[in-house]
Amino acid sequence: MTPRDTIYALSSGHGRAGVAVIRVSGPAAGTVLERMAGGRPAPRTAALRRVRDPSSGEVLDGGLVLWFPAPNSETGEDMAELQVHGGRAVVAGVLAAAGKIQGCRLAEPGEFARRAFENGKLDLTGVEGLADLIDAETAAQRRQALRQADGALAALYGGWRKRLIEAMALLEAAIDFSDEGDVARDAEAMSRAEILTLRDAIARHLDDGHRGELVRDGFQVVLAGAPNAGKSSLLNALARRDVAIVSEEAGTTRDIIEVKLDLEALPIVVSDTAGIREASGKVEQEGIRRALQRARQADLVVWLVDAAAGESAPPDTSISDAKLVVLSKADLVDAAKLPKFPDAIAVSAKTGQGIDELTRQLAAAARARIGDAEAPALTQARHRQRLEQCLASLRAALDQPAGATELGAEDLRRAADALGRLTGVVDVEDVLDQIFGRFCIGK
Q1: Element (H, E) at 267
Q2: Which of 14, 73, 423, 429 could disulfide-link 123, Cβ–Cβ 3.0 to 4.6 Å?
Q3: Phi and psi at residue 106, in whole multiples of 5°?
Q4: 10 Å Cβ neighbour count for 408?
Q5: Residues 215 and 379: beta-carbon distance below 8 Å
């Protein structure tokens, strides 16, 4: 794989479709248009052309072609697009024909995005935002990913790095003019003030309740309770399809079953777990252990109480502090005889009673945790790790004793390095393959 290769791939969805978009990027992109589509159209202007095999001259299809000369293209290289009919035979024929042109080869997964990064069109946070945008399943995920792909995080982190470099320059000035006491003291004081401001800003950004990860990965809700409390039936009712086996036999659920829901545009993952009780069998014991473990990690535990069987209060320990009590099988009990729990919701998976109210409360709980969805948010463990490294270095710089200016400057250099690795300003070859490997071919 060399920078001089010209890459091509199907960039639209695979399979039969009305239109297929084939992208070409690299020095031979113009040659592809000349040999397959009768020449390059005006830049960024769609032209209707016959698409031909460059060897035989056979017409493969008729479609639109576009030309994006470097550097004003998505990858920063010469780029071309062929928008043809989306039949499998057409797509296969055009891809095979492009491969006959010298210097052209099929793109690797994520290679278009990687070239955009290498040519300064995207930073690493923008690349990750683009990958999240492709994977987005809810409106909240789409909005967050789009902001990140458009550079919201890059602007924030880039601004911090610029201010950090200014603080480093002031500290270096204090070192260079150490023989001029007033100059050195003023420069060091100004640097310290800037470092304090950055430390507080980064600390606030990190202390966000993981709201970005919640949007990206989903607000985790665990259905818990005694065996046969109606957890699997409720999961099916929330999912509006049969995803869990429902049986009157207690202990049917042994493993954890997950369903992803889109509630009021928010991603919510609901997990059905084994009934919690004293179990004798090893398989059921393992299921209960997993249920308790998942409940401890949950953002919200929905504790089900079988309204027909009597009270079964949630335990005070062993599960998440965030609990919502649901009285299941409410259709079997007179409303006046329902067990009394504060703020409990009576539901019936059979009749649908209370399901809408439950979904509203789940969405409200998720929205309360996510908070301000417009502000740039941390979305990746990699981001959090680098920012924590940066923050630790800033704190170390502030803790240096008076006169240890050189040590403080080294701490700032490490902080700047952590921020640079976050956006890709500093060489990050060790993480590139992992990041770009998330993409499919053609992206």
Answers
A1: strand 266-272
A2: 423
A3: -70, 140
A4: 25
A5: yes
Block residue for tokens 């950004």: 205
CA distance 37 to 40: 8
Residue found by looking up tokens 């393959």 in the block: 433
What are the pLDDT tens digits along the chain (443 aa)? 455 799 999 999 888 889 999 999 999 999 999 999 999 999 999 999 999 999 999 999 999 999 999 999 999 999 999 999 999 999 999 999 999 999 999 999 889 999 999 998 988 899 899 889 988 989 989 999 999 999 999 999 999 999 998 888 888 887 776 656 566 678 888 889 999 999 999 999 999 888 898 899 899 999 988 888 888 889 988 888 877 555 455 555 556 888 999 988 889 999 988 877 666 677 767 777 788 888 888 899 998 888 887 666 666 555 666 788 899 888 888 877 787 887 889 999 889 999 999 999 999 999 988 876 677 888 888 999 999 999 999 999 999 887 788 898 899 999 999 999 888 876 545 445 655 665 666 66
Using alpha carbons, select from 371, 380, 368, 369 the residue that is nearest to residue 148. Answer: 380
Q: In angstroms, rounded to a whole number, what is the distance separating the alpha carbons of residues 255 and 237?
A: 19
Q: Encoding tokens for residue 201?
A: 């800003």
**β-bridge partners, 51:** 61
The residues near 198 (Cβ < 8 Å, ≥ 6 apart) are 160, 163, 164, 167, 394
